[in-house]
Specification:
Keywords: DNA-binding, Transcription, Transcription regulation
Strand content: 15-25%
Number of strands: 4
Protein name: AsnC family transcriptional regulator
CATH architecture of the largest domain: 2-Layer Sandwich
InterPro entries: AsnC-type_HTH_dom, Dimeric_a/b-barrel, Tscrpt_reg_AsnC-like, Tscrpt_reg_AsnC/Lrp_C, Tscrpt_reg_HTH_AsnC-type_CS, WH-like_DNA-bd_sf, WH_DNA-bd_sf
Order of helices and strands: HHHEHEEHE
Distance between the termini: 14 Å
CATH topology of the largest domain: Alpha-Beta Plaits
Shape: elongated
GO molecular function, one term: sequence-specific DNA binding
Number of domains: 2
CATH superfamily of the largest domain: Lrp/AsnC effector binding domain/regulation of amino acid metabolism (RAM) domain
CATH class of the largest domain: Alpha Beta
Helix content: 25-40%
Radius of gyration: 20 Å
Pfam families: AsnC_trans_reg (PF01037), HTH_AsnC-type (PF13404)
Length: 149
């Protein structure tokens, strides 16, 4: 997918503040509001911009414990297990990783009791999981979503 320097500027500006208006963006990149609107629509049409969203601070919403899991799964059950876990509201993200049918999962819960309950009731009870490793985040130094230009 091709994009030029103006598109790159627009993407960087929107990555920093997705609420910027077409007028504000136009002022920053030196184009008209209509030209900026057309460029953003083009970026959306080409799939470069997938969606606009809000980033919510999970800690301030009561999810104080953040943990990562490496979950090994029987190969024939990988898709079913991944979908089952993806449907769980405590699972923030889940990815299939290289290796022997491994899932990498980020979980957000209110406290350590909820984490223990998630592990015992939601994870260990899933048929097809062969191994679970977990790491709890102690301190966040950097966190971002999406692709950084």
């Amino acid at each position: 997918m091709k994009y030029d320097e103006v598109d790159k500027q627009l993407l960087e500006l929107l990555s920093e503040d997705g609420r910027l208006s077409y007028v504000e963006l136009a002022e920053k990149v030196g184009l008209s509001r209509v030209a900026v609107k057309d460029r953003i629509q083009g970026l959306m049409d080409r799939g470069i911009i997938e969606k606009f969203s809000v980033v919510i601070n999970s800690e301030k919403m009561g999810k104080k414990v953040s943990a990562f899991f490496e979950v090994d799964v029987e190969p024939k059950r990988l898709q079913t297990v991944a979908q089952n876990l993806a449907d769980n509201p405590s699972v923030a993200s889940i990815y299939q990783m290289t290796g022997p049918s491994t899932l990498h999962m980020h979980v957000l819960v209110e406290d350590f009791q909820k984490l223990e309950a998630f592990i015992n009731d939601e994870l260990y009870s899933v048929e097809g999981i062969t191994r679970v490793e977990s790491s709890v985040i102690l301190k966040r130094f950097k966190s971002r979503t999406g692709y950084k230009l």
